[in-house]
Amino acid sequence: MDPRRALSMGVNVEHVSPTELYEVLNAASSQDPSQLKASHERLRQMLDMFGTYDALHDIAGQRMAPLAIRQQAIIQFKNAALAHWKSRKLLNDEHRARIRSRSLTFLDEEDETVTASLDLRAASLIWYFPSNWENLITDLLGIIEVHLQKRYVSMSEDPRDVLTLRRSVKLLNGIIKEFASIKMLNGVKTMANLVDSLYPVLYRYYSQLAPTVSPSTVTPQTIRSSRISDDILLSHLVYKCLVKTTIWLWNRIDKVSKEERELNRARIRELFENSVVQVKGLIELRTDVAIGLTQTNSNTDPQVQRFIDIFTRHVRVFGKFFRRLQQLSPARFIALPMCSDLILYYWSQVVRATTGAPNLVSDSNQAPFPVRHLVQGMVLFKESLAQWTPNRRDGTPNENALSEGFIQNAVELLVTRFMPLNPMDLEIWVADPEEWVNVEDKENDLWEYEIRPCSERVLLTIANMYPQYVTPLLESTFRQITVQPPTKTEDTDLQAILQKEAIYCALGRCAGRLKDVIPFDQWLERTLAIEAQDTNPKYPLIKRRIAWLIGKWVSDGCAKPNNLKIWEVLVHLLKDRGQGTDYVVRLTAVVAIKECLDVSRSELYIRFLLISWQRQTLEFETPSFEPYLPTVVSELITMMGEADTFESKRRIDHTLNVVIEQVGQLIVPFIAVITQPLPQLWVEAGDQWLFKSSLLVTMSKLIESVKVESTALGGIVVPLVRDSLAPGAIINLDDDGLTLWLSALQNTLTLSSVNGAPALFDLFPIAMNLLSTNFDLLGTTISIIESYFLLDASGILQACNVQLFTAFLVAFKSDSTMITNATSMMRALNLLLQVAPPNLWGEALHTSGLFGYILTTLIDGEVIIRCFMPSRPRIHYTKASTILLTEHVLFLSRAAIVDRNMLLQLISATGPAHNLTVDHLYENMFDQWFGKFDNMSEPRFRKLTAMGVAALVSTAHPEVLKRLPVEIFNLWVDVFYEIKEAQVVDDSDDNSPSAPYNLRRHWELDEAPVSFYQDTQGTPEYDRRKSVYDRDPVRTAHLGSYVGTHIREAEAAYGSQAFQAQYLSKADPTVLSQIQAELARV
Q1: Cβ(673)–Cβ(633) under 8 Å?
Q2: Which of 348, 584, 789, 1054 is the 20 to 30 Å CA partner of 265?
Q3: What does the alpha-carbon distance between residue 135 and residue 138 come to, in Å, rounded to a whole number?
C-alpha cells in the first residue's frame, strides 16, 4: 500500500530513516552495554516503521559497510521479515521487488552469516514464483551456467566461482524441495513445469561434473588440494537436485497421461541406470582411498578429512535415492533394469567390510566402511529379499532364488560380525546404563540407521524367507552352545561372551521359526536359569540378554507365560544386586516382566492366535505369578525411586501398571506400598509430563483393580486430580487426570472425607468449571458429573444447584458443543431427575434459565449443528437435531412423572421470562412432543413418553386435555399395541414395594442397554446404575394401570359429566374403545 493511501485510511505510518537505521545497527554492534540497551530498544521500535525491512536488506548487501553492521542487519531481517512479508503497513510491492532482486547478489558473499538468509528465503521465494518472479529460475540457471563455464571450460581457479556455484545450487535445491512438498493443484502444476524444464539442464550439469571424480583425478596428491573436494561437492549438490526431481516423477508416475508417463519412465531409467554404474565406481574408489589413508595414518590432514567427508556424503546420497525409490514402490523398484545387480553389489560391500580389521568399520565419514553405508546396503537387501524366495507366490520354483550357501554365509556374517555388541556399546553401557537401555528400547525406530538393529531385522527377514535353510542352521548352533558346556577360557573371554550374547539375540529374534525345534522350557531349566545365577563379572551381558530373550519368546507367543521357572529367573534378575549383575540387567528384567504379563496384547501374539488353538495355555494366569508379586512390586517401587532419568522411571512405572492390571484384587495388600511414594515422585517430576501421565495411569489402574478398597484413597486422588487439571498442566494431563477422577468416582462408596483426607466432593467445582469452559473435554466431564449424581445428587444440589444448572446452560449455548455432547448432557439431567428430590432442582432450573432454554429450544424445533470451521459459521439442520430434541421430550416426560405440578410451575414461569404466553408454550411444546414420538425407537422411551403425558393429563390442565381426544389417545394406543405387560403377584412378601420382577415386560429383551452402564461393569457404580434402572417407574409401573389412574384423576378434577362431554365424546370411537379395553384388563 502506498504510504499516502495508508494515511488517508487512518493508518499511522512512520517512514524509516536509512541513516538512523544504520546508526542504530552500528550501536547495536557495539560492546558498550549502555549503547546496546538503547539501540536494541530503538531498533525494536523501528521494525514497525514503513520500509525498515527493505533498508535492513540493503544495508546487509553493502559490501563496504563494516561486517558487524551487515551481520546485525541480516539477522534482524531474517528474524522478522518473513512474518511481516505481506504487511502493507511495513512493505509495499516496490520494497518486495527490490528485496527479491537483491537476494541473488548475496550468492558470492563470503560471510556465511550474511548469506544465511538464502536458505531461509528458499521457502518464501516459491510463493512469488512464477507469478511475481517469473525469471527466478532463469536468473539462477544463468548464474550457474556462467560460473560452470568459468570453472570447467576456462579452468578458472577463482574461489568465488565455487562459492557462487555452491550457493546457487543449494538455493535451487531448496526451491525444488519446497515445491516437491506442495500437494495443492497449482503447486503441483508449477512443480511439473519446473521438472520438465530443469531435468535436462540438471542432467547435463551432472554429466559435466561427474567425470571430475574418477581414479585419474582422485590421487594421493590431489586429495590434499581443495579443487577435487570442491568438484565432488558441486557434483553432490547438483545430483541432489536431480534426485529430488526424479523422485517427484517416480511418485507421480501413475497420475499423468500416457505420453508423459513414457517420458518420465525414460528419465527415471536414465538416471537410475547411470547412477547404478557410477555408484559402484565411486564406492570402490572411496573405499580404496579410505583404506590407504587408514593404513598410512594420513587422514589427519584437515583438507584430506574434508575430501573424505564430502566424498562419503556424496556416495550416501546415491543410497538414499535408491532407498526412497524402494520405499515409494517396492514392486516398481525391483523391476528397474540392473536393480538386482545393484542390491547384490551393496550386499557384497557388507560382506567385504567383514574381511578386514574391525577398526575399518565405524560410524564415521572417515572410516573405510561407514556404518551408514553398510546399513543402506542391508536395508536395500532386506526389503528386496522377496524376489529371491525359493518359490514364487503361485508355488512355482524361482530360478533366481539365492543358494543355501549364500543364505548360510549371510546368517553367519550377521550373527558373528554385526550383531555382537561393539566397544562403543560397552562404553555407553558402563558410563550411562539407563540411557543405554533407553536407546535399546527404541530399536524399532533405529533399525534403518544403526547397524546392529538393522542386522537383526535382516536376519529375521532371511529366516522368514528361507526357513528351510535358516532354521536348521540356528538349531544346530543352539545345540552346540547348550550341549557343550563352556570352557573356563570361554567363560572369561569377553569376545566369546559377546558372541554368545549375539547368538542368544538371534535365537530370540527368530523365535517364531524356532519354537517347534527348540525346547524352550528345557533350555530355560537347564541353561538359562543356571546362567542367570552366575556371578561371573562379565555375565551381565548374558543376563541382560536372557531377560530380553524370555520376554521375546513369551510376547511372540512361543513360550507359556505360566511357567514358574520364567518368573523365578526374571524375579531373580530383577532383585539381584550382587556380583555378576548391574542396573542394565535389572532394568531389562523390568521390561521383560511387562512383556510376559502383557502377552495377550502383543501384536505377534494376537497374530499367533489367529493360526493357533493354544490360547488357553498361552494366556497369562495369575496363580503362577502370585508367589512373586510381593517381590516384584517392592523392587519396582524401589527402582523407580533409584532411577536417574524420568524415561527410566516411566518404563518401570509402565511395568507396575501392567502388574496392577493383571493381578486385579491381589494387589490390595500392596496399596500402601504403591501409593506411599507417589506424592514424592509426583513433586520431583516437575514438568516431566510423560512421567506424570504414567503416575496418573498407575493410580487409575490401582483403583480399577481394588475397586471399593479405593474409597480411602482420596488423600492421593484429590491432589493428583487438582494438579493435573491446573493451568499449565491441563494441556498435558487432562485425559489421564479425568480418567483417574472418573475411576475414583465409579469405584468409591462415598463422596465424603475418609479419615480426614480430602474428599471427592471437593472436586465438584472443577467439574462445573470444565463443563462451562472446556468443551474439548465435555464428553468425559459429563460422565464425571453423572457419577456425582449417582453418589450423592441431593448433596450436590444442596451445595450448588443454581451454579450447576448455569454451567449446563453455558455448555448448551456454546458454539463448540457438538450434538453428541449436548445429547449426553440431556441424558445426565434426565438421570438427575430420577435420583434427586424435586424441591432441590425445580426452582434452580428456573432461576438458572436452564429449563427455559430446554423448553424454548424444543418449541423452536431446531438445533444448531456447529460447523467445524469457526471462520465460516453455518447453521445446519439435519437428522442429528431430532436426536437431541427427542432427549428434550424425554426430559420433560421424566419431570412430569417425578412431579407434574413442578413441571406445570416451571412452564408457567418460563412464559414471562421469555415474553411468551403460556398457551403458546403448551401449544408448541405438544406439537414437538407428539412430532418427535415417532423418532423414538426404544420401547422404554416410548413408554416413558406415554407415562409423562398421562401424568400431565392428571393435572386436568386445559391445554393438556384439549389434546386428549386425538394426539394423546393415539399415542397411548400405539404404545399399548407395542408393549405387552402383565403384573405378577409376589406372594413372598405382601408388604414389599413393587419391583421390576413384579412386572413381566414382554417388550424388554435385555436387562438394560449396554450404553446405560457406561462401561462400569464390575464397579460399585454399576450397582448404583442398576438400582436406578430397576426402580425406574417405566420398569416398575404397569402402563395400563398408570394411564387408568391418571385419567381418573383428571376426570375427578374436571367433573365426570363435563369430562365425558368435553373430551371423551370427541374421541374416535374405535380408539376410545381400544383404550377402554386396555384399561379394563388391569
Answers
A1: yes
A2: 348
A3: 5
> What integer is the mean pLDDT of 827-845?
96
Task: Please identify which residue in the block is written with the cell numbers 507421480.
Answer: 252
* DSSP secondary structure letter of residue 755: T
DSSP string, 820-851: HHHHHHHHHHHHHHHHS-HHHHHHHHHHHTHH
At residue 240, φ and ψ (nearest 5 deg) are -60, -40
In which band, very low, low, confident or very high, does the pLDDT at 481 lie, cut at 50, 70 and 90? confident
Intra-chain end-to-end CA distance of the chain, in Å: 85
Written as one letter, the residue type at 452 is: R
Between strands 981-983 and 369-370, the pairing is unpaired
CA–CA separation, 945 vs 923, rounded Å? 17
My answer on whether omega of the bond before 130 falls inside 30° of 0, hence cis, is: yes
**One-letter-per-residue 3-state SS of 260-314:** HHHHHHHHHHHHHHHHHHHHHHHHHHHHHHHHHHHHHCCCCCHHHHHHHHHHHHH
- Are 162 and 144 contacting, i.e. CB atoms less than 8 angstroms apart? no
Q: What global pTM score does this model have?
A: 0.85
Q: Which residues face 15 on adjacent strands?
A: 50
Output the CA angle 778-782-783, nearest 5 degrees. Answer: 120
Please check whether residue 919 is in contact with residue 959, taking contact to mean a CB–CB distance below 8 angstroms: yes
Do the beta carbons of residue 748 and residue 711 sit within 8 Å?
yes
Contacts of 948 (CB under 8 A, 6+ apart): 892, 893, 894, 895, 896, 897
Grid coordinates representing 22 are 544504520
662 phi-psi bin (left φ>0, alpha ψ -120 to 50, beta other): alpha
pLDDT tens across 18-45, in order? 998 889 888 888 877 878 888 888 888 8
Question: Helix (H, G, I), strand (E, B), or coil: what is residue 726?
Answer: coil
Q: Which of 780, 899, 867 is nearest to 828 (CA)?
A: 780
* Phi, psi of 50, deg, nearest 5: -70, 125
Residue 218's nearest CA partner among 281, 300, 169 is: 281
Quote the cell numbers at residue 718: 484429590
Question: Up-side HSE of residue 801: CA atoms within 13 Å toward CB?
Answer: 23
pLDDT of 1013 reads 86
For residues 94 and 403, what is the distance between their CA atoms, to the nearest angstrom? 70
Distances (CA, A) of 155 to 206, 312, 445, 618, 712: 17, 25, 47, 74, 86
- Residue 744 grid cell: 475414583
Asked whether 416 and 499 are in contact (CB, 8 A), the reply is yes
Find the helix packing angle between 185-209 and 136-152, rounded to 10°.
10
Give the per-residue pLDDT at 1004. Answer: 62
DSSP character at residue 528 = I
Looking up cell 468409591 gives: 748
Cell numbers at residue 612, please?
493357533
Cα dist. 770→295, 747, 786, 841, 868 in Å?
70, 22, 14, 21, 21
* Confidence grade of residue 877 (pLDDT, cut at 50, 70, 90): very low
Q: Return the C-alpha cell found at 188.
A: 503441483
